[in-house]
Design goal:
The protein is an alpha/beta fold. About 30% of the residues lie in helices and about 20% in strands. The protein is built from 18 helices and 28 strands. Helix 4 runs parallel beside helix 6. It starts with a strand and ends with a strand. About 30% of the residues are buried.
């Protein structure tokens, strides 16, 4: 039987495994901090493998670096002994919902989700702290003492002598912020699908550094756009210089995209409404596009006449459509022909909706004029009886706009949408709005640190506010639309591992601690707590249906039917084991104490070999 580690995935070892597949000769051995032999990489040899000249030593090269970058990589790769615990009392429609709200440090949460949501997230939107000097998330202030920064960055020597000229303001304000965001984005990229996209709100303070970081993590080839978002109507009363009325949204993809489309804006839709024909009820209005072209390479098969009212109309060079397609469109009244100045103009009708009634999309633009911050404030006030309990939340229409993008010509209306700086839960509001409008089945995962809410004392922390906003927004949307969508959410909270320290370091067990051998599980943890931690390690999504049954007085947990069956009871009788095996589960998990002795354990393995040979058996 395989023993579960009950830790988040060790990304360093994952990376070493990938390198070993390409360059097995650079894999060597080293001793860890406990003196045990482990696999390692001979970096000098790896450098040589990746170079077509002899590698002798360090050379200057173009790269992004700052004091703390290596620590950021280490922070991202190091596994943690933590878990997520279910909070059913705060959840809504636990048994049926597929939405998640997770309370805790987002770096820890992202690590815990690595196995369950690897390559599964369709889109990410985050609104991280802007590093204005007034941010109190993760650190009260990202500034470093001047002397500490100069010494760490190598700008002064051990005697305090400055080595290179550098103004105090250049860098020291940014290093910790860059370290914080780098490690989180590095892990988040792993969660994106191959066609996944991320949107990051930011302002002038860190937009340049953030773009360099994203180029480093996602690759410069996967940069899509630096969107300028006009988010304010005008300047404030205290403005002295230029009125700063915009922020930015950086957009990157995990891999190069074939195409990206966005909903049409109101002005574009008005253009379609200017022209109507007999198909208006089903396809809406239309605009026209030319069917003749002079710019493409010569294609003899695209040179032919169109017979209209007994007159042959020829293109100056050629048509853009084949003869069959153009003739069919002409017969279906989908062509507009005009005569002016001795020439015929032949244009196609481009309808607002396709044959199935789906509204056409267009190309997103790099400058957004609204929605405005004031709309976000108004929106949340309407939910909280005229009170703004958060302070400058993003308008849900902004996030709704991004989440409605079509990627690579795939206009699907499902997928997982992640926000790991979720604040007042605007992203959940946006997902519900979208689903109510188009009948989609999009799912969200929101992550928020339970920091103190200084805006409104009614909510002790931002998480309490976020959960209440989702409840109120769901109620409002349901009342206004009657849409049959998922209004619920499961709540989880980051906590220490369910396992005692002895589980991870049995070699450190002292004679006086022998009583710990009675159980390696903490006394205040439930079977559901253990189930969630097992699901995280085995890579099962936390939104899967979960069911609990009693078999001969023993509690047995079922996840997604027979995807996982777990029993954490002591001394599980053979008759119960047979009933579990009869379900032919893909995976089954027991505790060490589920077996009376080693012979009972061996007997269980033999039973599964006979009754369910495809089952993977694991133990705590």
């Amino acid at each position: 039987m395989k023993k579960l580690t009950m830790k988040s995935v060790d990304l360093t070892q994952v990376n070493i495994d990938k390198i070993a597949e390409l360059f097995p000769n650079v894999i060597t051995e080293a001793r860890d901090e406990k003196g045990k032999i482990k696999r390692a990489v001979d970096f000098d040899l790896l450098k040589q493998e990746l170079s077509d000249v002899l590698v002798e030593g360090e050379k200057e090269r173009y790269q992004l670096t700052w004091p703390g970058k290596k620590q950021a990589i280490l922070n991202a790769n190091t596994p943690i002994d933590k878990t997520l615990r279910p909070v059913k009392e705060d959840s809504v429609d636990w048994d049926n919902t597929q939405n998640l709200y997770i309370e805790g440090d987002n770096l820890e949460v992202l690590k815990l989700l690595q196995e369950s949501y690897l390559n599964k997230v369709k889109m990410i939107y985050i609104d991280p702290p802007y590093n204005t000097g007034n941010d109190f998330i993760y650190k009260d202030d990202f500034k470093e003492p001047t002397e500490e920064y100069l010494e760490e960055s190598g700008q002064i020597d051990e005697n305090g002598i400055r080595l290179v000229p550098n103004p105090n303001s250049n860098g020291r304000f940014h290093s910790d912020w860059m370290t914080m965001i780098y490690s989180r984005l590095k892990i988040a990229r792993n969660l994106l699908r191959d066609d996944g996209v991320i949107f990051i709100s930011i302002d002038d303070n860190e937009v340049d550094n953030l773009k360099k970081i994203c180029d480093d993590i996602f690759g410069a080839d996967n940069f899509i756009e630096k969107i300028v978002w006009k988010n304010k109507y005008g300047s404030g009363a205290l403005t002295k210089g230029f009125a700063n009325v915009h922020e930015y949204i950086l957009c990157y993809s995990k891999n190069p995209l074939v195409n990206i489309e966005a909903p049409l804006d109101e002005e574009s839709i008005k253009e379609y409404e200017k022209n109507k024909d007999s198909k208006y009820e089903t396809r809406g209005g239309y605009i026209t596009q030319p069917l003749a072209t002079n710019s493409k390479d010569d294609r003899p098969n695209l040179v032919y006449p169109l017979l209209h009212n007994g007159i042959e109309i020829w293109p100056e060079k050629q048509w853009i459509w084949s003869k069959e397609r153009l003739y069919k469109a002409y017969e279906n009244d989908e062509i507009v022909i005009n005569y002016s100045n001795g020439k015929y103009s032949v244009r196609m009708k481009q309808y607002l909706k396709d044959e199935n009634g789906n509204v056409r999309k267009g190309k997103p633009v790099s400058i957004l004029n609204g929605p405005f911050n004031q709309e976000g404030t108004k929106e949340i006030k309407e939910l909280f009886d005229g009170i703004d309990p958060f302070g400058f939340p993003k308008p849900s229409k902004l996030i709704e706009y991004f989440f409605s993008f079509s990627i690579n010509n795939l206009d699907d209306r499902d997928g997982i949408y992640l926000d790991f700086f979720s604040g007042s839960a605007t992203s959940a509001h946006a997902v519900m709005n979208l689903n109510a409008k188009d009948g989609g089945s999009r799912k969200y995962i929101l992550v928020q640190l339970p920091e103190i809410n200084k805006t409104n004392s009614k909510f002790d922390n931002i998480c309490e506010l976020g959960k209440e906003r989702i409840r109120r927004a769901a109620k409002k949307i349901k009342e206004e639309t009657g849409a049959d969508i998922d209004y619920g959410f499961r709540v989880f909270r980051v906590d220490s591992s369910n396992m005692k320290d002895v589980y991870y370091t049995p070699d450190k067990l002292k004679q006086g601690d022998m009583f710990d051998l009675a159980s390696n599980i903490k006394e205040d943890r439930t079977g559901e707590d253990l189930l969630i931690q097992v699901m995280l390690e085995l890579g099962l999504e936390l939104s899967l249906p979960m069911e609990t049954k009693q078999l001969e007085g023993k509690i047995v947990h079922y996840v997604a039917g027979n995807s996982l069956i777990a029993c954490f009871e002591d001394n599980v009788p053979e008759s119960v084991i047979k009933q579990i095996a009869a379900e032919k589960p893909l995976r089954v998990v027991f505790r060490d104490s589920s077996f009376e002795d080693d012979s009972a354990r061996i007997n269980v393995e033999e039973l599964f070999k006979m009754l369910s040979p495809g089952t993977e058996i694991q133990v705590l």
